[in-house]
Each structure stands twice: as C-alpha cells, then as structure tokens.
Amino acid sequence: LFPGARVQCxxxxxxxxxxxxxxxxxxxxxxxxxxxxxxxxxxxxxxxxLPTIKYTIKDSVMSGFKKCSVKLRVQCDVSxxxxxxxxxxxxxxxxxxxxxxxxxxxxxxxxxxxxxLPTMKYTIKDGVLSGFKKCFIELKRFMKDKTFDYQLRCPQLTLVGEYDxxxxxxxxxxxxxxxxxxxxxxxxxxxxxxxxxYLRFGTYTVNMDAxxxxxxxxxxxxxxxxxxxxxxxxMMNDNxxxxxxxxxxxxxxxxxxxxxxNINDYADKVAATDIFSYEQ
Length: 280
Description:
Layout: H1 14-30, E1 41-49, E2 54-62, E3 73-75, H2 81-97, E4 108-117, E5 120-130, E6 136-142, E7 147-167, E8 176-193, E9 196-210, E10 215-216, H3 226-238, H4 240-269, H5 272-275, E11 277-279
Antiparallel strand pairs: 1-2, 3-11, 4-5, 5-7, 6-7, 7-8, 8-9, 8-10
Protein name: SFRICE_005821
Pfam families: JHBP (PF06585)
C-alpha cells in the first residue's frame, strides 16, 4: 500500500475495529458540525421513582467522557472451539458459585442414590460431592448438527455420605478423592428471547476418566471388624482403577443430573451471546 492510503477494516477484524474506533472517539466526544459534544452531558430534569424513594435532579451535568477508552465486546463464532472454551472458563466461577435463580454447583447434593451393579448393590444417603470450584474447562464446542462436547478437568472431587453395600467385587465405596476428567456429550437447542440467543441442553451421556489414583476411606466396614475392614480397604486402594470403573457410574450420573440442571438454569438466565463473548 502507498503511504497514507486509507485501509478499510474487515467487519470481523476486532483488533482493527477497536483501534480505529478509539482513534475516532475524540472527534465524537468533542463533537463535530451537526453533532453535539458528549462531554459533558446535560439534563434539565431527571425524576426517579423507586419502591421506597422518589428523587429529582435539576440542571444535572455528567462529565469525564473525554478520558474514556473504547472496548468492543466480540462475539465468538459458534464453530470456534478455542473462543467458546476460553469464554466459558471466564464465566465458570459465576456458574459454580451460583447466581440469583441458579443454585451453586459446589457442593452437589443427593439425598439418596442406588447403585445396582451385576455383583453388588449399594446405596448412598445424604451424598455430597465437592471440588467443582477448582475445576477448569478443557474443551467446550458446539457442532452444526446441534450436538456438543463439554470436557471438565477437576483436580480433586470428594464424595462423602452414609453408605450401605453388599456384594462380591471389591466390597466398598464411599470416600473417593481423585483428579477426574468429566466428559458430557449430547444435544442442544437455541432459543431467541428479547433479541438474544439462549441455550438449552437436552439428552446427554456422561463419561468419567480418573487421571490419578482414587483414594478410598470407609468407616464401619464389616460391622467394625478392623482386620477385615483394613484388608478390604487395602484391596480397594491397591486396585483403585478397577474399583472406580466398576462402581462410580451410578453415583456420578446421579450427581451429574444436578450439575446439568444447574447448567440449564444458568443458560436460561444468561444469554449465550453474553457468555461466549469477550472484551477487545
């Protein structure tokens, strides 16, 4: 290009649009022929009617806009998995801590869980699964066929509760601690409200992959017989992977139902266009 040539920003080039918007901002805020200045802004009269107070402001002046800078909010393309993942992580803490109308997701609670396995049956009463605040999103992506992948990495999840179990396998399950990767795959749909898009997650499957050793700690195994209990715990912890793979699915699926419900509640309150966007 020749020196001094004027180059048009591509509409999708957020860096270019932000930079050039900032360059023209001073002209805008100072005013040009036919456009009033925006610093200061003036209002002759303002009336505020609130539930417990009423106020009026006369001859009001708001100043300081000359010192402002331009930041554009850039929307992720739905097929851009890197952008979707990055912006999802930014909003994850709000989701997991809960917002008005959306329950917190750490800890998750289940009053009663039943696990019916081929060689064993167990129940968990007053189950509590904690550790989601320390999780991070490894991947989140949406496909054109209205399916999604959601991968969550959790350095440590802890499950506690009152258990009752009978069976042959490795004979126990209740406090488990581990580094888990949680994979949710399923279908989603979009809904339009007030000019914004909202997501709704439908049917899904859950897969969990233990990334490190699971540690089990059970109380009152074999009705308090310490010798038998110690031997059972040693066998479970020595064979933690087989124990985990055989027993985790009923319990974790029950907790994931609560987790996905909270995701849908959050997605109903916060538009996808707000979640999957970032300031440039």
